[in-house]
Amino acid sequence: MIYRLVSLLLLLCSAIVIKGQGFDPMGLEDQPSYPLRAFLNKFSVSLSSGYGRTFYRHTLTNNNYVRTSEGSFIYPNGEGGTSPAYSNWFNRVEPATLTLPTDPDSLTLITSDSSSIAMRGGGYHIPINLSIHFNLYRIRVGGGISADFHTVNPPQPADFRSIYPAPPSFRTTQIRYYGLLGYSFYEYYDNAFAVDARVGVIRMGNGFDQGVTQASPFFNVGITMEKVFSEYFRVYLRPAYEFKNFNTVLPDGPTTVIDHGNSSVFLTLGVSLNYPDLPRSPIKADKTQMKHYVTDPRTGVRREVRGQPFWRKQDPKIGELYPELVKSKRKRQSSRKQIFKKKPK
User: Fold this and answer.
1) Does 167 score more than 90 pLDDT?
2) Which CATH fold topology does 43-57+118-274 show?
3) Domain spans of the chain, in order of start
4) Alpha-carbon distance 125 to 51, whole Å?
């Protein structure tokens, strides 16, 4: 009987001790400590940059293409001798008066009498992108803006080789505004994968005459591969393909509108941040590696805080990220390397 009473007392004492050693002895864990922080934590802010390629494609019908020492021009079919023509019809449409060569060859003149002329060009991008999205379970809803530093090589006839120089490249800064919708479809340890679509409008920049060019909305779809360092900090890689086109309007002539396809591929590297739902511990000597409760020495208020910087796991497993264990791990690795070294004879 006495043995049973002693066992019961020990059990009650252990329960009291365990509660006393917990992180929430005052029963505050059911109350949200920082409701505004908890709401802001649902938003992710991303900043990225990388590289992109654009493929310019269009066809010329009812127009001929000619390249001379004065530049590249198009002019309507059926014209000859001195003809009204256009230079920079790709991005500016500048009227010109062209005197055709008396005996042009295939390196100078291509006609579209029997078929359209396939035009090919390209360019590369250095984008800087800023976006924000709201996390609703696995769904992401948001938007963003990007500045795109774009270098363009104007189109010319496919497989065209001429003794005269090609149209010079030019630079333009394009601005994109878009909405975002995504879904996080797979997680594996500290890695996460999501697919998202971005739909918006694009300003072509000063390299394109806005009076004669008009860009369509763009549609960008990509896969985001994230390395999760903590619930507040991630690094990601995003390959994407973008569908878009724009029109150039000619003032007159048989063909008044030229439709240019300019789809792009992008590969960007970025970081994604969430506002921490808890502040850091106000006690500088606090080395706790988990979320826990402390009494603020300045205000005397007891609040839940985090013990880790935002880029580290806030509730790591036992021993994870502990500095002494990292040192021990390095020491063991160094010892293993010594085994394979040749011993001096």
Assistant:
1) no
2) Porin (2.40.160)
3) 43-57+118-274, 278-345
4) 6
